Amino acid sequence: MDHVSMPPEAPLAYPAQDFARPFHDDAAPGHVAGWGTRAWRAAILLPALLSTGVLLWAVLARFDADGTTAMEVALAALMAAGVFWIALSLATATAGAVAIARDRPRRDARADKLDVALLMPIYEEAPWDCFGNAAAMLEALRGAATPHRFTLYVLSDTRDPGRAAQEEIAFAALAERLPQLHYRRRAENADAKVGNLHDWVTRWGGAHDAMLVLDADSLMSARAIVGLTDALSRDPGAGLVQSFPQLIGARTLFARAQAFANTVYGAALAEGLARWTGGEGNYWGHNAVIRTRAFAASAGLPRVGRARRAILSHDFVEAGLLRRAGWAVRFLPRVGGSYEETPPTLVDHCLRDRRWCEGNLQHLGLLGVRGMHAVSRFHLLQGAAGYLLSPLWFALLLLWTLSGAGAERSVWSYFNPTDPTRPVWPEMAPVDHVTIMLALYGMLLAPKLVGTLATLLTVPAARLGGRLRLVGSVVVETALSVLFAPILMVQQTLAVARVALGLRGGWTPQRRDGAPDGWEMLLRFHAVETALGVAMLCGIAAGAASPWLLPVAASLALAVPLSRLGAVGAQGWLATPQDLREPTVRRMARERAAELRTRIGGVPAE
What we know:
The protein contains 20 helices and ten strands. By secondary structure, it is of the alpha/beta class. The two termini are about 20 Å apart.
């Protein structure tokens, strides 16, 4: 089956771009970053570079007391590379908090009418949830005061015949009262989500001015949908406008910690990112409205590399191609009412991360695309760096572990280059370990503090459960992030190793029920972390490793019980505003999903 209920086709050319030649879309008015954006970039980038330079100078000065070795230079370079991204995050959050504190609401100009297609690509998902979200969004839009016209397309790539039958029942149950809803299932699901959207653009894209791309778990209020559409309408030079999705539906301890961090700390980071990116923003693949003809003309993705493989993490690249063509890409974090779900357990998070890792590392080969803006290249590099930092920190951890043996003895021989007992590995005295630990934890925790303060400036304390409850939640989330961080570091290191070895991940639907995994499965999944943690604990006990690594070693050794802990239900903990006061569109989606699940109940998926 190709489609069940679709309007007449309106084909639109969607050619693959040539990465070896610059491209400019003649329809794009062109965009040049203003002085305000450049000032924000300087205010954020310079402190990050300065703090990284100071660290590099201090470490090399410490090593240079007896002549710097190649190993010491490598160690200092690794530390500087890791610290730069932490410093950039801190500078971004600080700038965002300042912007939030200083800004005042502005009245927006009138928006011109746009015909917008809401696109929901799905693959082997629970149809009651997807169609429940679709129904809630369309019903919310019915009562919205807006000049725009909205149509929603559920674009299925489901292969399971039983699941496909459930999708058809769900669509039939809604189609009569929601004529703006359409559904089609592709006969072949080539190129996954990219191919799914390509099929829609080339067959029906010509009928719509803009498309709002959703994920299967996306949910947006009418205010958010209209707000993004208004922003695109008012800015004729914008090709894409991205929202800041907040996490909803979290029931497990791990998921609720992620949702709390996203909501409470994320506001300042998002605002800072919006300020310094300006019209060179990024795209995260969903909850964004895009000018259809601009996208079709300038963002077609070719196959790349010797193997002519499809581009996996397409969203970053599409944003870069739109900007290359002359269209602005904007990030509007203050458009509220944009939601998505998060993986319920640590295992599910890591499995999703493996797919993202493969796609982001592929971006390293695309940094040379001709005509791409420097900030767009930086987004590609930053995405890859997010994964490469884990093996970097892992290498530093190994060096640190080796430097702990006999620290008190080696600290004197280290300063004597003629001493034959001088160690090959850089050795650090206890005071060095303490200083490094405090500095790193301080830089990692500072964005949380800044983000919390920024949230308090914008969200009444009552919506966060009161100041005391907020402080308690910050303490709990911080403790959980410290416990999970070493495990995530090892898992991301393994993901990078898998990519380096050419082991590709499959395209599998995300598990959303949050059912805890069995102990045997968890032991297999976390075997590497557990073994490393036990080895480090043994080294610390034998005096062969620094005792200051005990928190990291304990976290790794306890990876299995910590992973199981993250899967326990935690209703009421780490509350966010959307937990304490459920958004109307979320309540509507739950009600529609329950109705559809009852309707579909007798038709099992295979």
